[in-house]
Amino acid sequence: MRFTTVVMIGLVVFGLFACASTRPVLYPNQHFQSVGKEVAEQDIEACKQLAESSGARTGSGRTGDVATSTAMGAGVGAASGAVGGAIYGAAGQGSLIGAASGAVAGLLRGILFAFKPSQPNQAYANFVIRCLQEKGYEVTGWQ
């Protein structure tokens, strides 16, 4: 019971870090310098909200990637564990052990990749970039 609680708390913390979104990086052109950083940040937020209200989505998020990696690890582990267990005459037990170890491996892999910078959905990014360009900004990339 205690181990499960620790794992759940860890997943929630990783999920919060995974939800951090990327932002457009603006080139400090004449328009950016004339309006200042504070107004530029407000314009970025306005363009992001406009993109979302128009139906563009930011992306699936890292939490979904971690869950997918965990499930895939469990599936691969169960299959390989069943094969190994069948060789020794205990396919069911091998499958259970393989599923558990595969799920842990998949979870750890997903968590490691959760900290890799993610890129937004292409349609969402294009929408935000166009909105900012129409306001006079130059977007150099996302981070």
Textual characterization of the structure:
By secondary structure, this protein is mainly alpha-helical. It has two domains: 23-59 and 118-143, no CATH class; 62-117, no CATH class. It is built from five helices and two strands. It has a two-stranded antiparallel ribbon.
Rg of Cα set: 22 Å
**What percentage of amino acids are in beta strands?**
5-15%
Number of helices: 5
- Summing up helix and strand content along with how strands pair, one would put the structural category as mainly alpha
The H-and-E topology, N to C, reads as HEHHHHE
Helix content class: over 70%
Outline: rod-shaped
Major β-sheet profile = 2 strands, antiparallel
Widest beta sheet: strand line-up: 1-2
- Overall mean pLDDT: 75
Domain tally: 2
Present the secondary structure layout:
Layout: H1 2-18, E1 24-27, H2 30-53, H3 62-87, H4 91-114, H5 122-134, E2 138-142
Antiparallel strand pairs: 1-2
Helix pairs in contact: 2-5, 3-4
Briefly say what this structure is.
The protein has 143 residues and is mainly α.
